[in-house]
């Protein structure tokens, strides 16, 4: 079974989520999740976009000189409005739901400092993933820093 793990950090709440990333699969939430919800718009690829587990060069983004995503090509995003539920304390698991909230006290770093992200954050993420899924090794290899005001001001991210 192919499993690609993606780890995301939400610095404001200092917690991480580990989620299983599968093409065009949206794992169902358990019926027991009936907490207050809000509506949000998500974008999914239409069926006109060819899928592949290997890089084809047909879908992607052109990054700017600072490494930020620029123009996308080969995409056909379809907006879908959905309810977003608070999944905390719901017992959601990576194997059953495709993602899992993991409590973890992160060592604080300057997330705008690329050296700190590569030398401190990456190893910590790799160790967290290994502990959570029982892997012997894990390689963090890419990140994006999204800070519109810093980018508009010309600051390097």
What does this molecule look like?
The protein is globular, with a radius of gyration of 17 Å. The strands form three sheets. It has a three-stranded antiparallel β-sheet with strand order 1-2-7. A two-stranded antiparallel sheet has the order 3-6. The protein has a two-stranded antiparallel ribbon with strand order 4-5. It has about 160 residues and is of the alpha+beta class. Mean pLDDT is about 75; it is low at about 1-35. The protein contains three helices and seven strands; from the N terminus they run ββββββαβαα.
Instruction: Choose one word for the global shape.
Output: globular
Order of the strands making up the biggest sheet? 1-2-7
Q: Tell me about the biggest sheet?
A: 3 strands, antiparallel
- The rounded distance between the terminal residues' Cα atoms is 37 Å
The chain-level structural class is alpha+beta
**Mean pLDDT, as a whole number?**
76
Helix-strand pattern: EEEEEEHEHH
Question: In short, what is this structure?
Answer:
Helix content is 18%, strand content 27%.
Structural descriptors:
single chain, 157 residues, alpha+beta, three-stranded antiparallel sheet, two-stranded antiparallel sheet, 7 strands, 27% strand, globular
């Amino acid at each position: 079974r192919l499993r690609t793990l993606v780890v995301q950090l939400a610095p404001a709440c200092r917690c991480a989520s580990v989620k299983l990333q599968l093409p065009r699969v949206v794992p169902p939430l358990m019926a027991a999740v009936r907490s207050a919800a809000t509506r949000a718009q998500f974008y999914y690829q239409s069926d006109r976009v060819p899928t592949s587990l290997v890089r084809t060069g047909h879908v992607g983004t052109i990054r700017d000189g600072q490494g930020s995503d620029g123009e996308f090509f080969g995409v056909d995003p379809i907006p879908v409005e959905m309810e977003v539920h608070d999944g905390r304390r719901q017992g959601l698991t990576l194997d059953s739901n495709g993602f899992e909230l993991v409590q973890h006290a992160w060592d604080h770093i300057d997330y705008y400092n690329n050296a700190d992200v590569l030398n401190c954050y990456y190893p910590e993420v790799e160790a967290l993933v290994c502990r959570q899924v029982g892997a012997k090794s894990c390689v963090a290899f890419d990140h994006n820093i999204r800070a519109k005001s810093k980018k508009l001001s010309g600051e390097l991210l």
